[in-house]
């Protein structure tokens, strides 16, 4: 009985964490460049149940030999193993704002690969983002809406001295007679990147390899790739599963209560 109690409880915890991830996706459905989180559920290791017994041997000494009769496997519940972002390209929408930049994936050498803008966080460390909703700060540097510097290919902040600049299709910023190529990085296995909040990713990424193609559109933004309707449907499924495990848990609790308060009184 106690094993079933814990199995139902683990199912409730897993569905609660799944609800949290789905709720966060819906909350960021309108966040530019946001990548939807996909929680993955995994079962705890299964246990093999065997019936222990003994077989009597008709001898003068009355020998008993131990026996084992396999009964089958027992599942001990589920848990959320990890939450993996979905790096599929979001829809592109036009904004007409010169500081908005959309990064569009083309042909990439790896199925799990993705391209990112390179930025600098408040600690001076390089991070990666798909959110091209940029602006210009008071010192004339191109920054994200959170104030993180947008970096060029050399890893330096980009000085635009205002919003009057052009961005070519290959990601080169043209300011008067000067140019500054946007720092576009490539992660061969984007699943290994770690989300840090504010649209930032941390992990291993490098230069765009030969053969990889992309397009940069000024005055456009990549929208979130969250499918709000699908996310709402998944939330309802998760809620129903949570309720089912809750009813099972309540049934176990009532059975244990009877065992303690009623059956124990008969003795």
TrEMBL record:
Question: Pfam families per the record?
Answer: Flg_bb_rod, Flg_bbr_C, LlgE_F_G_D1
- Which PROSITE patterns does the annotation name? FLAGELLA_BB_ROD
| Entry's Gene Ontology BP terms | bacterial-type flagellum-dependent swarming motility
The entry's localization annotation reads: Bacterial flagellum basal body
* Record-linked SUPFAM superfamilies: Flagellar hook protein flgE (SSF117143)
Family annotation (InterPro entries): Flag_bb_rod_N, Flagellar_basal_body_rod_CS, Flagellar_FlgE/F/G, Flg_bb/hook_C_dom, FlgE/F/G-like, LlgE_F_G-like_D1
rRNA-binding listed as a keyword: no
Similarity section: Belongs to the flagella basal body rod proteins family.
In Swiss-Prot or TrEMBL terms, this protein is called Flagellar hook-basal body complex protein FlhO
């Amino acid at each position: 009985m106690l094993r079933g109690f814990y199995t139902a409880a683990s199912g409730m915890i897993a569905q609660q964490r799944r609800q949290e991830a789905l709720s966060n996706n819906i909350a960021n459905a309108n966040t530019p460049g946001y990548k939807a989180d996909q929680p993955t559920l995994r079962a705890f290791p299964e246990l093999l149940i065997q019936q222990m017994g003994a077989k009597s041997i008709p001898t003068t000494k009355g020998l008993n030999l131990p026996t084992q009769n396999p009964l089958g496997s027992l599942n001990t519940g589920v848990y959320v193993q990890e939450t993996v972002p979905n790096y599929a390209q979001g829809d592109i929408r036009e904004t007409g704002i010169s500081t908005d930049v959309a990064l569009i994936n083309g042909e990439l050498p790896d199925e799990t690969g993705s391209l990112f803008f390179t930025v600098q966080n408040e600690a001076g460390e390089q991070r990666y983002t798909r959110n091209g909703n940029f602006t210009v700060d008071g010192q004339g540097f191109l920054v994200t809406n959170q104030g993180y510097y947008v970096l060029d290919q050399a890893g330096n902040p980009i000085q635009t001295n205002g919003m009057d600049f052009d961005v070519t299709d290959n990601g080169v910023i043209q300011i008067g007679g000067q140019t500054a190529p946007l720092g576009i990085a490539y992660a061969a296995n984007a699943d290994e990147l770690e989300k840090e909040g504010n649209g930032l990713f941390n992990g291993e990424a490098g230069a765009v390899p030969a053969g990889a193609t992309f397009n940069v559109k000024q005055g456009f933004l990549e929208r979130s790739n969250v499918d709000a309707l699908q996310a709402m449907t998944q939330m309802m499924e998760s809620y129903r599963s949570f309720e089912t495990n809750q009813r099972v848990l309540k049934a176990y609790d009532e059975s244990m209560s009877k065992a303690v308060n009623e059956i124990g009184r008969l003795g």
